[in-house]
Write a structure and sequence with these properties.
The protein has 90 residues and is an all-alpha fold. It has one domain: Acyl-CoA Binding Protein (Up-down Bundle), CATH 1.20.80.10. The model has no long low-confidence stretch (mean pLDDT 95).
């Protein structure tokens, strides 16, 4: 299985979690997903009154230096970690 296929598989697996990850974990996943699928940030930073979108933008900007492959690999690792934590807590 190639990296892209494994990435897409884990993007689906994360949806199977019964308990939502922390906001911090969700932001990490969001940033890595956007970097892997879109590439470097291509929009301006949302205004300070739009806290949710601003946090998402910041999470994406934080991983902007990663290549798409690095972002995919890191995303897969993070999903595996969250799935293992969920299994251990069950």
């Amino acid at each position: 299985m190639g990296l892209k296929e494994e990435f897409e598989e884990h993007a689906e697996k994360i949806k199977t979690l019964t308990q939502s990850p922390s906001n911090e974990d969700l932001l990490v996943l969001y940033g890595l997903y956007k970097q892997a699928t879109v590439g470097p940030v291509n929009t301006s930073r949302p205004g300070m009154f739009n806290m949710r979108d601003r946090a998402k933008w910041d999470a994406w900007k934080a991983v902007e230096a990663k290549s798409k492959d690095e972002a995919m690999s890191d995303y897969i690792t993070k999903v595996k970690q969250l799935l293992e934590e969920a299994a251990a807590a069950a």
